[in-house]
Give the backbone structure.
Amino acid sequence: MFINNWYAACVAADLGTAPMRVRILDCDFVLFRDASGRAHCLSDTCCHRGASLAAGSVQAGRIRCPQHGWEYDASGRCALIPQGSRDGAHPPKRARVPAYPVEERYGLVFAFLGDLGPDERPVMPDLLPEYATGEWYCDLIRRRKDIHYLRMAENYNDPCHVHYVHEFGRWLPKGVTIETEVLTPTYVRAFHAAWDAKGRWGREQGLMMEYSVIGLLSRNTNLQPGYPRTIVLASVTPIDACNTQIFMLLLMPKADATEAQHRALVTMTEKQVMDEDYAVLKTTRPVLAAEPAEELLVESDLTLAQVRKMTLEFAASQGEIDQEAWAPVRQSHIRVVPCPEHRTDPKNWVHKLLPLRPRRSSAVAAAAAG
Ligand code: FES
Ligand SMILES: [Fe+2]
């Protein structure tokens, strides 16, 4: 798991002025909307005595801690200490919690969990321009699975499992050929053309797979003759090292599909397809994403191998959480993901930062920063 990326935190329609707690990167965050409807994300742990801010309430754009009523504004600064302080309206500088940038996209709330300022922050590419057109049926599924987030992302970019794992895919050809490919340090797009019975392939049947490490977004566009085009966009958010929150959007074009067809796709995905993936992924070892040297990847695994490589390279350049250093202290200490204000004002914080592994600079980070 690593910092300095956009992570899908919740479904936008689920978030109102009532605070919501979410767990990402093995840390707790609180999300809430102010009176104008703008979403905010703060570290969830009150810097006074450690209560969960998500258990409090929001009034006039401030979140009030449930234990002693300290009020934090959207920037994470404590704006009011109602008692026990000589001047409650002017709390000490250290009375603050980290605040993280937020962006709403595709009906989801994404939080940027890291300390990069606006000029350095990677931009999430628009992998789903169809979403805003209104010309597609669109539905959203959310699932939590005890699978490593990178294993999930690799699964969405593995064209050859479909035939074996999924009931709906039994009739699909077993073979694929990577016909076209676009590859940057943080994005890959490859068309996996499906073979016909004679081993031929063309552009009319297969899976277009796209992955962006920024936002951990995977898009599959499924092309089958005689069936409406389907798009699946999945965002995988690491809850912790072993659990993943999946947000999946399913789209079909209104021009080619009926609403009933789309509904059937959503129901099948929710009730069957995701469970079929899970049943196999649960058996794979090691539990965390594998080392390439401990697998034998072949040509048709190229895209998923690129997904892994670019994700791990990006992670190493942005700041991987040092699990070994954190594990021994996690029961007795609070550690937080750094936020942009940690860069501009590194002193005067109550909670210390998560331990990170030494960062490796790479072309990936340079490319992401534009
Ligand atoms: S623990 Fe939050 S105000 Fe005291
Ligand atoms: Fe699958």
